[in-house]
């Protein structure tokens, strides 16, 4: 008997894969061909427009003479798109923050480095404090009003604050909702259901227009802070339900073993229950973060110019009328890069934390 | 010889809704005593030992463990849980932690031992149950018997004065039961006070000072092993014994 017999050619290699996945039956073959036809219809013209026929160099719209995209539009407005109306002389403050953020994140992404914990703590606790001073001023730095904040910078501020603060609040709400104390449970449930039951647009409108009406004369919170609080609680309510799902998946035995070992409620939650239940819901948590990141675009309706808002805004500049396609494609690409990055990170995290149960 | 009383339960009652799961339980356990509790399923035997470290709350009567009465006061509960180790039917190891971390977690966070010391002690107990070579693996990578031995080591790391076993071999494949029972016999020989809910009558004969038979929430029979197997008084005990022996 020949033990070294090879699998039939049809089972392996590219040919085998094609046959198995794309041409296995006659209707599968038809679907494959239709799919290929659509790809042919869409991709080559898009590439021609976006790259082959596009204009990359120049300074004004007159330089864009070809039929393709005019990336000069993006290039010329890059400062507005990234920094909003932030004063030119103070841009270094934002650049420092961008720099620190990028370096820290890359450091965390490289496997097997020392002091990752410290970098994480820096990013979560110290970096935001630095940012508050850098961005708004104080300690000798000139004050910059938040109405001048905008662009990608503002989007990252809103998303960053939302993500960093909404997770701990969401966890507390989830624990509260499952609490044995009826008052705590009731209040948490009411809070969660109210915030989940209202569209984010409504929350932002309320924060921007209604909230000042309830405040006594002269008391005035910054509009951005009001929007941030709205986004944060909105996201926290969703995360609370995600986390609660994870908590419910915990077997009773884990609680009992922790209690029998003498752990108090908070130690049991912090050391045994949450590490396991949060791990289960990583994909859903990151999903919430991605949704939050994209929802930041809604702040446009209360007059804050985030990344997408500012692109729309520069599109209305008489010098650059008619280039909104380029603007939207660029916005979509940048949003996609951020969201895809988060999605990949979530998958890495899941793999890393897998202990086989 | 009068020995120290470790656990005293007097007129303990417990209901699950309408169901009277513990009905007037009176039990005294002295230091070093090994008690095996058996009985049909639903007889209240697991509930009884779970009341001792308050995984279940009793509703009437009094439970005193090492001089501390179990009440709703969290401090008394925590104090008692520190003295009482428990081994579960389903092992209940923490799956996200290595075996070593499973064992050193409570000593570090409850007993406030320094990390190094807690780990050394954990290795010592893991050696005693002969799985020190598995210390850095995760629970899911171990066999059932190994997991249960790790669970015993985890409980021992707290240096408890009393050990509770809730059907420790019921979830194991037959060939793994012996390795767990051997560990328990070793523990008994070391003088540990033990309450064991089990149907392993061989184990009961070998180590028990007293065998308790429970049915419908009551202690029906409480005798030393020789008498328990030779002349059970109650009809229910006889029926039960005829079914499992």
Walk me through this protein's architecture.
The complex is a heterodimer of chains A (357) and B (245). Chain A has 357 residues and is mostly helical. Chain A is 69% helix and 0% strand. Chain A has 2 domains: 1-52; 73-86 and 144-353, MetI-like fold (Orthogonal Bundle), CATH 1.10.3720. Chain A contains 15 helices and no strands. The radius of gyration of chain A is 26 Å and the shape is globular. The two termini of chain A are 41 Å apart. In chain A, 29% of the residues are buried. Chain B is an alpha/beta fold. Chain B has 9 helices and 10 strands. In chain B, α3 (99-109) crosses α4 (115-128) and α4 (115-128) crosses α5. At the A-B interface, α11 and α12 of A face α2, β6 and α3 of B.
Write the layout of secondary structure elements.
The complex is a heterodimer of chains A (357) and B (245).
Chain A: H1 13-21, H2 26-52, H3 72-76, H4 78-83, H5 91-109, H6 116-136, H7 151-177, H8 182-196, H9 200-214, H10 223-248, H11 252-260, H12 265-280, H13 282-295, H14 307-315, H15 324-353
Helix pairs in contact in A: 5-6, 7-8, 7-10, 7-13, 7-14, 8-10, 9-10, 10-12, 10-13, 11-12, 13-15, 14-15
Chain B: E1 5-16, E2 19-30, E3 34-38, H1 45-52, E4 60-65, E5 68-69, H2 74-83, E6 84-87, H3 99-109, H4 115-128, H5 144-156, E7 162-166, H6 174-189, E8 193-197, H7 201-207, E9 210-215, E10 218-223, H8 225-230, H9 235-244
Parallel strand pairs in B: 3-8, 3-9, 6-7, 7-8
Antiparallel strand pairs in B: 1-2, 1-4, 4-5, 9-10
Cα gyration radius of chain B (Å): 18 Å
Strand content of chain B: 25-35%
Helix % of chain A is: 55-70%
Q: How much of the polypeptide of chain A forms β-strand, as a percent range?
A: under 5%
Largest protein interface, residues of each chain? A-B, 22 and 27 residues
Question: What oligomeric state is this?
Answer: heterodimer
**Name of the CATH superfamily of the largest domain in chain A:** MetI-like
What's the rounded overall pLDDT mean of chain B?
Answer: 92
Q: Which strand order spans the largest sheet of chain B, edge to edge or round the barrel?
A: 6-7-8-3-9-10
Distance between the termini of chain B: 34 Å
Q: By helix and strand content of chain B, what is the structural category? A: alpha/beta
N/C terminus separation of chain A = 41 Å
CATH architecture of the largest domain in chain A: Orthogonal Bundle
The overall strand count of chain B is 10
State the domain count of chain A: 2
Number of strands of chain A: 0
């Amino acid at each position: 008997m020949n033990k070294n017999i090879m699998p039939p050619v049809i089972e392996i290699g590219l040919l085998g894969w094609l046959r198995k996945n794309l041409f296995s039956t006659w209707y599968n073959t038809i679907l494959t061909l239709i799919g290929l036809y659509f790809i042919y219809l869409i991709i080559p013209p898009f590439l021609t427009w976006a790259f082959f026929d596009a204009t990359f160099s120049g300074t004004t719209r007159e330089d864009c003479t070809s039929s393709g995209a005019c990336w000069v539009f993006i290039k010329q407005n890059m400062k507005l798109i990234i920094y909003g109306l932030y004063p030119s002389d103070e841009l270094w403050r934002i650049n420092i923050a961008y720099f620190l953020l990028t370096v820290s994140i890359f450091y965390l992404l490289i496997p097997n480095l020392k002091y990752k914990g410290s970098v994480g703590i820096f990013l979560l606790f110290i970096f935001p404090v630095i940012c508050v001073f850098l961005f708004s001023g104080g300690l000798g730095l000139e004050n910059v009003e938040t109405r001048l904040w905008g662009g990608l910078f503002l989007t990252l501020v809103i998303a960053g604050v939302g993500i960093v603060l909404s997770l701990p609040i969401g966890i507390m709400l989830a624990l509260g909702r499952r609490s044995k104390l009826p008052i705590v449970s009731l209040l948490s449930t009411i809070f969660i259901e109210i915030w989940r039951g209202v569209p984010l647009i409504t929350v932002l409108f309320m924060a921007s227009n209604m909230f000042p009406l309830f405040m006594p004369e002269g008391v005035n919170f910054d509009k951005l802070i009001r929007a941030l609080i709205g986004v944060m609680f909105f996201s926290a309510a969703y995360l609370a339900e995600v986390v609660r799902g994870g908590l419910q998946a915990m077997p009773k035995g884990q609680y009992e073993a922790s209690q029998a070992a003498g752990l108090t409620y908070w130690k049991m939650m912090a050391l045994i229950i949450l590490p396991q239940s949060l791990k289960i819901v990583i994909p859903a948590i990151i999903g919430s973060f991605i949704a939050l990141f994209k929802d930041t675009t809604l702040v446009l309706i209360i007059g804050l110019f985030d990344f997408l808002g500012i692109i729309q805004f520069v599109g209305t500049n008489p010098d650059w009328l008619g280039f909104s396609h380029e603007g939207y494609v660029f916005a979509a690409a940048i949003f996609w890069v951020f969201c895809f990055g988060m999605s990949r990170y979530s998958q890495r995290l899941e793999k890393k934390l897998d202990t086989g149960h | 010889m009068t020995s120290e009383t470790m656990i005293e339960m007097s007129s303990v009652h417990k209901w699950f809704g309408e169901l009277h799961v513990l009905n007037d339980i009176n039990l005294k356990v002295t230091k070093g005593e090994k008690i095996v509790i058996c009985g049909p399923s639903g007889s209240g035997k697991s509930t009884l030992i779970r009341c001792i470290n308050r995984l279940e709350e009793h509703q009437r009567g009094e439970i005193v463990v090492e001089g501390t009465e179990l009440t709703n006061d969290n401090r008394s509960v925590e104090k008692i849980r520190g003295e009482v180790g428990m081994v579960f039917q389903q092992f209940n190891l923490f799956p996200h932690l290595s075996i070593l971390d499973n064992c050193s977690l409570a000593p570090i966070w409850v007993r406030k031992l320094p990390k190094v010391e807690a780990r050394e002690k954990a290795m010592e107990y893991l050696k005693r149950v002969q799985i020190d070579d598995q210390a850095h693996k995760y629970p899911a990578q171990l066999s059932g018997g190994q997991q249960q031995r790790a669970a015993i080591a985890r409980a021992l790391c707290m240096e408890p004065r009393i050990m509770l076993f809730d059907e420790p071999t019921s979830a194991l494949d037959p060939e793994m039961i012996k390795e767990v029972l051997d560990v328990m016999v070793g523990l008994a020989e070391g003088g540990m006070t033990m309450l064991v809910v089990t149907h392993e009558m061989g184990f009961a004969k070998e180590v028990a000072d007293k065998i308790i038979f429970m049915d419908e929430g009551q202690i029906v029979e409480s005798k030393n092993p020789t008498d328990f197997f030779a002349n059970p008084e109650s009809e229910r005990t006889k029926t039960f014994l005829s079914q499992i022996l």
